[in-house]
Amino acid sequence: xxxxxxxxxxxxxxxxxxxxxxxxxxxxxxxxxxxxxxxxxxxxxxxxxxxxxxxxxxxxxxxxxxxxxxxxxxxxxxxxxxxxxxxxxxxxxxxxxxxxxxxxxxxxxxxxxxxxxxxxxxxxxxxxxxxxxxxxxxxxxxxxxxxxxxxxxxxxxxxxxxxxxxxxxxxxxxxxxxxxxxxxxxxxxxxxxxxxxxxxxxxxxxxxxxxxxxxxxxxxxxxxxxxxxxxxxxxxxxxxxxxxxxxxxxxxxxxxxxxxxxxxxxxxxxxxxxxxxxxxxxxxxxxxxxxxxxxxxxxxxxxxxxxxxxxxxxxxxxxxxxxxxxxxxxxxxxxxxxxx
Length: 340
What we know:
The strands form six sheets. A six-stranded antiparallel β-sheet has the order 13-12-20-19-17-18, with no helix packed on it. 19% of the residues lie in helices and 31% in strands. The protein is α+β, with helices and mostly antiparallel strands. It folds into three domains: 6-77, Phosphorylase Kinase, domain 1, CATH 3.30.200.20; 84-250, Transferase(Phosphotransferase) domain 1 (Transferase(Phosphotransferase), domain 1); 256-334, Tumour Suppressor Smad4 (Sandwich). The protein has helices at 48-51, 93-112, 176-192, 219-228, 239-250, and strands spanning 6-15, 18-25, 30-38, 62-67, 71-77, 115-116, 125-127, 133-135, 142-143, 146-149, 172-175, 256-261, 264-268, 274-279, 282-288, 293-299, 303-304, 307-308, 318-323, 327-334. It is elongated.
C-alpha cells in the first residue's frame, strides 16, 4: 500500500486513532511522519481534501493521503521538537503571549480553510526543528463552520460544553467556537499547570478566571480570554479576534509616530507619548497608549482626512489634519509586525 519511495526509520508513537512512524522519502530526500488509521476504529473519517488545502506556518503540512478499504495513511511533515506539554508552568509572560499568538494563527488558518479541528490540546501542538509551533493531528477534524455529530471524540479536559449536550436525535452541534473553548482550556493549563474544569456539564466546574492570573494584558484581552470559555458558543470570540489581541500585546510600545508642521517634526513613541496641538484657536492632544495613537482634549474644528476629529478617535497610519486659515499638519506612524 505504501509506495516504495518511503523507507521506514523508526516508530514515533500512538496518535489519535492510529500509530505514527518516521519514514524517509527517497524521492524528495526528506524525513516524513506517516500516520496509519484503521478505518474500523473511527465512524467519521476526516475529509483530507479540505485539510490538505490548509496553508499555514503554524499547521503541520499534509503531503499525501493514501488509502484503501480498510486503512488510511497520512504522509505529513515531521515535527522533531517537543510538544507543548513541556511548556506547562514554565513560561514567562512574553513566551506565553508568543505561544498563544502562534496557536491562534494556526487555528485562524484552519478555520479560514473551512475546517474545524475538534481536538485542540497541548499534545497536538509541537515545535519543528526551527522552533516554530505547529498544530497537528486532524484525525477527527471536519469541514464546515458548523455540523452535527453523535461521536463525542476529543479530550475531555479540552472538550467544549456543547459536546456534552444532544438534540432529540442524539447529536451534538460542533462549530469553530468549539476549537476556541479548547484553546482557552489549553491556555489556562499553560499558565496554571492544572487541568481546570470550566465545563458546567462536568463536576466541580469553575468560572473562567484569567483576570486572577496576574497577566499583564489589556483588559479587553483578559475579557476575551474569559469569554473563550463561555458555555454559550456564540459568546466566544473568533480565533482571528483573539489572534489580533495577542498581536497587539506583542507589538505594544513598539510603534512610532511623527507629526510634521512648518518644517518641524515631533516624535511620538513609548518615551514621548504626548504631543499637544494648539493652533488658530483649535487644540487637541495626540496620545500614544502603547497600542494606538488617539485624540484627546479636542476643541475647535480640526479634521483628520476630512473627518472631524472626536475624543478618543484612533488615528490611521497616515493622515493630514486641517484647521482654519488653511493650516495643515501631517501625521504618519509605523505599525510593526510580529516576527517569531
